[in-house]
Amino acid sequence: MAEAHQAVAFQFTITPEGIDLQLSYQALNQIYLSGVRSWKKRVSRMRNRVIKGVYPASPSSWLFVVIAILVTMYMRSDPSMGLIAKIQQHLPLSLHVSLSAQGQNIVSALVFSTLLWLSLILALRLCLKLLLSYHQWMFEKHGQVSNTTKVWVTLVRLLSSRKPLLYSYQTSLPHLPVPAIRDTLDRYLESVRPLLTDPEFKRMTELANEFESSLGNRLQRYLKLKALWATNYVSDWWEEYIYLRGRSPIMVNSNYYGMDFLYVTPTPVQAARAGNTITALLLYRRKLNREELNPVSSTVIPLCAAQCERMFNTTRTPGADTGNHWQDSEFVAVYHNGRYFRLWVYRAGRLLSPREIEYQIQRILDDPSPPQAGEDKLGALTAGDRTPWSQIRKQYFSSGGNKRSLDAIERAAFFVTLDNEEQGMRGEDPAGNLDRYAKSLLHGKCYDRWFDKSFSIVIYKNGKNGLNAEHSWADAPTVAHLWEFTLATDAFHLGYTEDGHCKGEIDRSLPHPQRLTWDIPTEVCTHAALSLALAQALADDVDCHVFPFREFGKGRIKKLRISPDAFIQIGLQLAYYRDRGGFSLTYEASMTRLFREGRTETVRSCSNESCAFVKAEDHCRRLFRLASERHQNLYRMAMTGAGIDRHLFCLYVVSKYLGVDSPFLKEVLSEPWRLSTSQTPVQQMELFDLKNNPDFISLGGGFGPVADDGYGVSYIIVGEDMINFHVSSKYSCSETVSKTFNLIIHSKISIAIVTQQQF
Q1: From the candidates 471, 481, 545, 647, which is the catalytic residue?
Q2: Does 135 qualify as catalytic in the annotation?
C-alpha cells in the first residue's frame, strides 16, 4: 500500500503554460503517517538499546551516582581520591577559559560520576554472568536444595530484580564451554555400549583412544581458540552445515508443524479466523520489536532470546542457502486458489483491526480471477531440491516483475495459505482425520505453502488453523512460544461476535489486496513440475499418526517422584524394543539456551540403565527409577554444555577445514538416529485457563522421520492430565508403522505407571 501511495502521490503534465503539478494530499498524508510510525519504532529501539545496555542497572541510577558524588564533595570530602582533580587538569582548554573554577570542578565530577557508574554496571554484569554460570542446582534432588544454591538464588533475584526487557540478559549469559575431549569420548562410549556387541564395543573403544592420542587434541585446540573468539562455538556451524548447506528438500526433512486447539475451533468462518490469527501474530511482533515480552526462563535462569530476532520478515534464500531478514514489513503474503496476493496490514501507520483484515481476506476468497500461467504450482520450487530452485531463482527471478513479486513474498512479515480443505478431529473418523490434519500441515499439496519463509500460517475452510516453520533460523520452543500467544490471543483476547466474525469496525475504502503478477516461462513450469513430483513422492511416503493420551499426565507421574520427560522417554524405549525387537541410537533434543546463542544438544536416551529396565520385562521398579534418574542426569548434562554430539560435530568440522580424515569421527557422525524425539514445551500456561476452559488444549506439533527406517516422535505435556503424541515414519519401510508404534507407546506407558504404583 505504501508503494502504491508513493506512485500516485503526485502527478504532473507538461502544458503550453508550463508544468501542471497535481498533488494527492490524502496519499501524502498516509505517507507522512507511515513515516511517523517508522520514526517511533526507531526511537523505541534507541530507548531499548540504552535500557538493556545498562542492565542490571537502570538509566536513572546515573543520576543517583551523580547526586551522591556532588553531595559528598559539598561535604568537603573527595570520594574520588584525587581523580576528580586529575580530570579537571585534563579538561579541554576551551572549558578552562569559559568556566569558573567551580564550574570546572562540577564538570570533572560529572565525568568521574559517569565513569564510576559505567564501572559499576560492568561489575554488576560480570557478577550476574558468573552467577548464571552456576548450574549445580540442576543436579540437586527435588526438596534437597543446598545452602549454596539458596544463596545463589537470592543473589540472582537481587541482581535481576528490575523488570528486564526481552534482550536485557543477552550480554550477561555465559558462553558455551568446550568439554574436555576425554570426557566426551567416555560419555560417547557409555552411550553406545548397550547397542554394540563386545567385539564391536572393543573396536570402537580402540578407535576412540586412537583418535584422542593422534588427531583429537589437535582439533580440540582449534575448537578452544574458536570458543575464545566466537559468541558460541557451535551455533554458526550448526546452522550452516546442518540446515543451510543441505541440498535435499526442506519440506518434511527439516520443516515442522504446529496445530490448533484439539477440541475447539473458535469460529467456522475462514476469513474471520484468518483476521484474528494475523492480528495476534502482528501483536506478538509489536511486543517483540518493543522488547515487551518477558524473557523466557528456566526457574530463575533466563534463556537466550537471540532466536527471536529473525522470527518475522525472514526467508531462506536458495543457493549457498542463507537466511535473509528485513527490519520491518507492513504486509503479509497470501496464497489462495493458485494465486498470490500482497495484503497490507497497516494503513496510515496504524494496524488494521481484525475485522478489517477479515474484510480483506474475504475479498481474496471472493476474487474469481484465475491463476496466471504457471503461478499455481510455483511454490513447489521451495519444496524440492535446493540446487534447481537456486538456479531457477537466479535466472528468472532476479529482475523485472518476477523479482518484485518474489520480493513481496520473501519480505512479507509471514506467509498465509487460505486452504480449500477442511481439517481437524471431526466427522465419523476423528482419529484418521487428525492424522490427515498433521500431514496437511507438514507438507500440504507440496505447492500451496512457501517452505522458505520463517513460518507459514494455514487457515482451513472450516476455520481450523496451523503453522509450518522453517528450521534453520530457530528451534521449536521459540516458535511454540509465538504459537501459544497467537492461540490464546485469538480465542481469549480478540474473540468473535455471535455470528463468528471478528470484532471491530471496517473502513470500506481500503484498497483491494494486490495480486502479484508473474511472467513464468516454460522452463520454470518444467522445473516446478519436477520439484512437485519429487516433493509429492516424499509427502506420500510420510506416515503420520497423532494420539491424544488422556489416561493420565504429568500430575500422576510427578506423584511417583519421577521426571515426566524421563518417564515418557523410557516408555518410548520400551515401545521401540517391543516394536523392533531391539534398541536403537535415540535422539532427544535438549536446549542449550542457558548459554548465549545456544540452540540444542542431543540427549542420548538409550542408556545402559534404560535397556536394563526394558529387558526386565516391565516389572522392576528399582531399575525404572535408575533409568529415569540416568535420563534426567543426561538431560541436565546436555543443557549445561556437557553433551556429546555438538562437540563431536564441531571437531569433525575442524577436521574438514584442516583436510584430515578421522575414521572415528566419520563413523560416529554416520550413525543413524532411528528414534528421533522431541518434547514441545508449554511455556505460557498462564495464557490458558484450563480449569474454566478445559477444551482449549493445544495439540502441539510434530516433524518428519529423521531416518528412512525410523520414527520421529514429538510429544507435548498439557496440564496435569494429558500427553499428546505425534509419530511419523515412512510407508516405504515395511518395519515401521506410525499407528502401531503409537498404540505400543500407549500400552507401555500405561504398564509403566501401573508397575510403579504396584511396588
Answers
A1: 471
A2: no
